[in-house]
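forwarding from the other thread:

> can someone predict this with 3-isopropylmalic acid?

sure thing
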Amino acid sequence: MTMKKHRIAVIAGDGIGPEVIAEGEKILKRAARLDGTFGFSFTHFPWGCEYYLKTGRMMPEDGLKTLAKFDAIFLGAVGFPGVPDHISLRELLLEIRHGFDEYVNVRPVKLLPGAPCPLVGVRPEDVDMTFIRENSEGEYAGSGAWLYKDTPEEVVIQNGVFSRKGTERIIRYAYELARKEKKTLTSISKGNALNYSMVFWDQIFKEVGAEYPDVKTYSLLVDAAAMFMVKDPKRFQIVVASNLFGDILTDLGAAISGGMGLAAGANLNPKRTFPSMFEPIHGSAPDIAGKGLANPLATIWSAAQMLEFFGHKRWSDKVLGVIAKMLREKLSLTPDMGGTATTGECGSAAARLLVK
Ligand code: NAD
Ligand code: IPM
Ligand code: MN
């Protein structure tokens, strides 16, 4: 039998990025070795803030062309003091998400038993959501202007761009998932204040919904949704949100489901015309970088999403099972989870616990 090799471009990036990504690679290699029918090759690209300070660019001019040849991208984190965030993130992370039309950002918000939760009286089964965040346009379109800069007449304009195609496809993706998983679907909006973009969003949510009479839906204003995520998280199952609302609510989601150290994400190009990108949702955490304190489980969870995307659902489930076991039995956890393990110890334990 020929072995399927998945070619992965690794952008470890800045701060804790390289620390956590090393552990993500460990689990992927382990899964491949145990399975025997598939393998991984990892090609590392030294792109990020240090690269920027040396070259004036976050990645080479033909960076996307280089990445396009891979089956997936595994990214640690981007951003570090010394390079303005709006440059580092736009020229690397957002450039890849946009350039490769990774229009779906899947972010699980699941409280596993043993993970710390700041909410009183909330049980693990009460926090079990999947966020489907629009990832290609909306508030992140990068459209706008800075007029009369540095004068008293200064004006800045940041446009939200909501195309019919872009809005329909993300909402449809969410409906499909809700149908497949037999779950409810909640749309996040702000139609009471954003009188073009969010009125349009609500309209499309209804229009597309006509094709999914079997899916029970809710529509919530984003402020109320933030409140309910804290007060009554079990209302939410599948959630669909615009780029910015999805960004903000998934950090809130991380906070109620164990913290940034557990929050995973997949940037998907569902048509597979370009590589998808897997990354924890946290940043480069300059406050703990280089100390072995970073929790690699978010990255390992993202690795599980990658395994699923490649069709290795059984291994994806097994990796999630390992994370659950480590939390439940308090095995080799990092300080943010109340343990004393280093990043490397936590990641090695995860790899060891992954069995056939
Ligand atoms: P952050 O996610 O890096 O850190 C927020 C807090 O969470 C910090 O206290 C940090 O120590 C903690 N934390 C984050 N990840 C952790 C982990 N794996 N284990 C344990 N603790 C963890 O957010 P920030 O401080 O707002 O941003 C830092 C930099 O990262 C900025 O440059 C920002 O723009 C960038 N950023 C990048 C990404 C990305 O690459 N996807 C995401 C968010 C922020
Ligand atoms: C995330 C991050 C990014 C985003 C930033 C760093 C541009 O916060 O992946 O959640 O807002 O998408
Ligand atoms: Mn974010």
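The first helix runs from residue 17 to 35. thats all i got for now
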